[in-house]
Every structure is written in C-alpha cells, then in structure tokens.
Inverse folding.
C-alpha cells in the first residue's frame, strides 16, 4: 500500500474524482497533511462527509514508523525510523538558540557508498535510495517532534545518512513538496543540501531553479589528505569542486557553505589552516568548522578523534586573519550517537530494547 507521503496533488485529485468528490479539494487536503506533521486530523469543516475515512483506508499517512528515540541533554532528538522493508534510517531534531525554533537533519539513503573514512554510516555499506515520501515522512516526524516541545521546524539540512546528490531526483521531489508553498510551505531558503563534492549533482541542483542552499564538505585543504579521508576526493578535485560551488553561487545567489570537520592531527594544523585560507581566497563563502563525534575504528582502522578546543580556536584564528568568514559549530547530542549512522549501526540487527520501544511508541503514531 502506498502512503500519502508518496502521493502528488494530481494523484489525490484523480482519486477524489474517481470517488465522486470534488477534485479541487486535493491541494487543501494535502497541504493540511503536510502542515500538521502528517496528521490527518481533524477533518476541517469543508471536507465532505466520509472523505477522511476513505482517504485513510486508501493512503495510510506514513509507510515508516519511529522505533527508537533518543533525547540529549541539549534537547537534540535523534529518531530511528523503520521503513516498510525493515531497513532503518535516522533523522535528527536540533533545537535552535531561539526558543521557538529547531533545525532538522534528514537522511537521503539507507547506508552510503561514499566510504568517507571517519563516518559511521558507510561502515555497513549502501543499501538503497530513499523515496521522496520516506524523506517527507522524516520531515513530518520532525515537525511533530518540534511541536511537542513548543518549537517550529524552521530549517532542514540533507546531511544525515547518504549522499543526497546520488539520489537527487527523489531529494528534489521531497524538497519541492516540503518547501514549496503548495504543500509544506517551509521555504526554499530554509533547506540546505550537503554533498561531499559530487560535481554533476551540484550542477543539476543549480539548474533545478529550487534556490536551496548548498553545503560542500571539504574536510581537508589539499587533494592528497582529502583523498585519504574521502574516496570521492580521488574523482573530484578541490579546485574543480570549488569552481562548481562558484557557479552554484553565481547561478542561485545563495552563498555556499564549506564544511570542515576538524580531526586531531589529521587536518587541523596551522599550516593546513593557511592552505585552506588560500584555497577559499576571496570567495564569499562561509567555512563551517565541525566538531567530530568519534565513531570508533574507521574502515581503514584509524581511531579519529576531535581536535581539542585550543587547536580549533587557533585554526579559526588563522582563517579569520586571512579574511575568511569561519565559525565553529557546536557538537550536538554527543551522548546520543548523534553522528550520522551511529545509532543505526550500534543497534545493528539487535532487538529494540523494550523501554526504548515504549518511549518510541509514545512518539510514533505512524
Ligand atoms: S559522510 Fe556522508 S557521504 Fe560520507 S560516507 Fe558518511 S553519509 Fe556518506
């Protein structure tokens, strides 16, 4: 059975017509579903008698189910969702410093084929692409999660499990639904797509006209170090990636963010900060320094560690002295397996503990 998260307005229009209801109800009905976190209640007054029940019988509100929920002291919430085929994916809600807002982090694939050496997701390999509906369901779940603590889901980033550029059709479809005014209404500027630097994907996203933000993960200032950390770095060189980012910025008018995860003794020296500053040069791009959440032994058997605070400050200072706009991003939810793929990997095929399942059940309505 197909869930409502997969349905287009045209699908709903056709079905209403087939049932003898006015097809013109379709956009309002789907909008109601998107803006109420996937809830199909209550029927608003204009809905014809019996329509809600028929819709629920035809299209269940979701095909995936929350099976585990972890809450960190800082309010970060990580949710593990089981898909119809039994696979699992993660999504995360991160409270903003403004008390009424929150940001969501979405997965675009089950597992990942990119093989970034410090990443937990890729350790269990790639399984499959998510459908646009499965991504929409993560957004709706995070909307409910945010509403439950008096916040509004304000921004979204595709930075969870998977490389969004390798599932770009479905990612763009999900973005159109959740960000466009017709349905989700979040706004294009509220969405960021993050990539390890898949240039054809960057070009396609620029051409799409969606006008979302782009974040590019560099993680090293030179191709040799980068290729050791990110196998994609062997195919896509830094100079070419930055040229694609330049074109993205020129085409969309959206400033590109450069992500750089500081790893102790690997990419965090002053010399590397200077090389990074030279690479960014005069570009009006923002460097976002991420704090690493350790994930145990890497694919290559390395035990990566986060840089210490003094090193991070020194690194930022070098960048800023060279005129680069740089910020350190706080690490979120460290005690709850918040690095992408960590929670899923830790559970593996294990049974969900009953107290966790019970906690999830209070959250998971579908
Ligand atoms: S960091 Fe992202 S792209 Fe790299 S392996 Fe992990 S999920 Fe995939």
């Amino acid at each position: 059975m197909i869930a409502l998260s997969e349905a287009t307005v045209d699908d709903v229009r056709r079905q209403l017509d087939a049932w003898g209801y006015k097809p013109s109800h379709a956009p309002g009905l789907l909008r109601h579903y998107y803006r109420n976190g996937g809830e199909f209640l209550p029927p608003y007054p204009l809905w014809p008698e019996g329509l809600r029940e028929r819709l629920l019988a035809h299209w269940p509100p979701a095909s995936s189910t929350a099976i585990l929920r972890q809450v960190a002291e800082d309010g970060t919430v990580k949710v593990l969702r089981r898909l119809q085929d039994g696979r699992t994916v993660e999504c995360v809600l991160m409270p903003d410093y403004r008390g009424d807002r929150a940001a969501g982090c979405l997965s675009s694939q089950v597992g990942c084929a990119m093989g970034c050496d410090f990443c937990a997701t890729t350790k269990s390999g790639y399984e499959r692409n998510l459908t646009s509906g499965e991504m929409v369901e993560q957004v709706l779940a995070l909307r409910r999660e945010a509403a439950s603590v008096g916040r509004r889901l304000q921004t979204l980033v595709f930075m969870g499990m998977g490389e969004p550029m390798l599932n770009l059709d479905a990612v763009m479809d999900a973005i159109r639904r959740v960000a466009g005014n017709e349905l989700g209404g979040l706004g294009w500027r509220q969405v960021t797509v993050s990539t390890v630097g898949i240039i054809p994907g960057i070009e396609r996203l620029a051409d799409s006209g969606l006008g979302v933000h782009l974040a590019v993960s560099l993680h090293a200032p030179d191709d040799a170090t980068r290729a050791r950390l990110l196998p994609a770095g062997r195919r896509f060189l830094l100079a070419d990636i930055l040229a694609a980012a330049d074109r993205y910025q020129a085409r969309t008018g959206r400033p590109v963010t450069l992500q750089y995860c500081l790893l102790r003794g690997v990419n965090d020296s002053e010399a590397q900060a200077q090389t990074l500053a030279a690479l960014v040069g005069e570009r009006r791009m923002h460097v976002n320094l991420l704090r690493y959440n350790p994930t145990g032994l890497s694919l290559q058997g390395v035990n990566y560690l986060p840089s210490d605070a003094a090193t991070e400050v020194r690194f930022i200072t070098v960048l800023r002295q060279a005129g680069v706009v740089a910020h350190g991003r706080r690490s979120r939810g460290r005690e709850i397996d918040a690095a992408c793929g960590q929670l899923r990997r830790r559970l593996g095929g294990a049974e969900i503990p009953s107290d966790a399942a019970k906690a999830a059940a209070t959250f998971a309505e579908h």
